[in-house]
Amino acid sequence: MVKHCKISKFLSFVLRHNPHVIGMDLDNEGWASVDELIEGAHKIGKRIYHEQIKQIVANNDKQRFSLSDDGKRIKANQGHSIKVDLELTEKEPPHFLYHGTARKFMTSIRKQGVTPSGRHHVHLSVDYETAKDVGRRHGVPVVLQVLAQEMWFDREKFYLSANNIWLTNKVAPKYFLVMNL
User: Fold this and answer.
1) How far apart are CA 175 and CA 81, in angstroms?
2) pTM for this model (two decimals)
3) Residue 167 in 3-state DSSP?
């Protein structure tokens, strides 16, 4: 399990942020050849195999990755800091969504709102607990309840990723309530 966790983190790094670290390119939609990924990983001393990749894609609790139908290509579902077209379709969000952050970021968030911070979009979840878990990764967690329908009515765009993470460009301070500090 620990091995799979390390491989999953490595896949996230390569497929979301830096495919060049293993001498690989992603296509416009973020897809990579599984064979090239394995070969590139081996060149830098990371031993990854087809079966491990299949297991990680199938069993990842956050469904971070997708395999093509033929199993020859892989991509990260969201969270990229590099330019990719995830072919997202605009979608009407539920009334409320949630964003997890850390208390140490709240001064900035209260002034500027929630920004993508080096990613393409702000990530939002449909439930409080998931957002709290995300916030916990960065320090003392704070959960923001996002007034998603209000944003939508004000013509802000929302997208739903393949792994059910809601994405938007920014959440201005007037569109969130702090749920806990």
Assistant:
1) 24
2) 0.69
3) strand
